[in-house]
Design a protein that fits this description.
32% of the residues are buried. The protein has one domain. It is mostly helical. The chain contains 16 helices and no strands. It starts with 10 loop residues before the first helix and ends with a helix.
Amino acid sequence: MTMNSTSNRLFFIDAIRAWAILMMLQGHFIDGLLDPVFRDADNLAFSIWLYFRGITAPVFFTVSGFIFTYLLLQVPEQGLANPRVKKGLRRGLQLLLIGYALRLNLFGLLKGEVYDGFYLVDVLHCIGLSLLAIIGIYLISGTRKRFWFPLILVCTTLLLFLFEPLYKQWTFSFLPLGLANYFTKVNGSVFTIIPWLGYATLGASLSLVFLQFKKARFLYPSVITCFAILGAGLIYGSSPVFLKLYEMTDVMLFQLIYENNYLFIRLGDVFVVFALFMMIRKLLTHPYLLKIGANTLSIYVIHFIILYGSFTGLGLYKFLHHEMNPSWAISGAALFMFSCTYLSLLNAKYETTLKQHQAETLRFLQSRLLWNTKKMMFLAKELYIKLRIFVLRFLNVAKD
């Protein structure tokens, strides 16, 4: 298996994540700043761009679930004793906090107001909750037979995807606004935990294949073939299958899925992307590509601040919203991608240096504290001896 000697991460997975974050950068930039006049669905270039933009989020959610579960199950400890559980809980909560922090407006806070946009749910919220959900499934199935964990993961994906036409119509108005936004887009949320959790649980189940057969001689040829066939089948065959099921059973749910079958088609896209990246996995070991894949969170935060103006509201979106022609939008997207990744890698570089300095400072302070403690103990001992001698002499004089 192609793995970094200093990491348990698969090279091709980090490469997929790098590709997905770069696709997200250009997708958000062009979608937010391109003039609507040029949004022509009949234009071949625009329709291709639009299709590939739709692949980004499913791939990113799937990869997130894959990486997290792959690392979670590599640890020999089980259940709550697994240190990855604690790390996962901390990571999931961290993503939720960052997601809300990015939607804060400092000017509003100074006026004592929290704008409604703060309560909207985005990709970080959903990924954070997905990690927490995977941990929950892992802990629930931990005391049972081994097949329960992958079975619950796969069933979660299928149930969320199959019943999406029904629950997407619900407004969840009985819930507080902040909670309802996790389940419905009617208030403006970009992502919701349902159905997007389904891609994360799918990724989690796929990681089990690599863990189970990581020493198999023909792992990659077998998985590439299966993923390519399954992906093509879902892309081109899932809609006809649901239409046929409706004709055979008259179950309206199958008709609704057929009319808007984006989840299963995008699922097919995910399998095809995985297959393609596995085919060229030996070419995906460049350090910078892997660094981008390992720093997707900081890239996302930086892009959100620059494009949408987190904290201040003063981003590119405010000043250039739907103002650019295609030439400017494409050029700007390329510059935007470079800037966000460069700033992220620069931050990672100095963050490592800063942590080293912090560690050195901490060690120095610890050594000085130890030395001072020993010195104080020595002085205290000397003081005790002198005080004892003084008291004994005083008692002898008093006795005489």
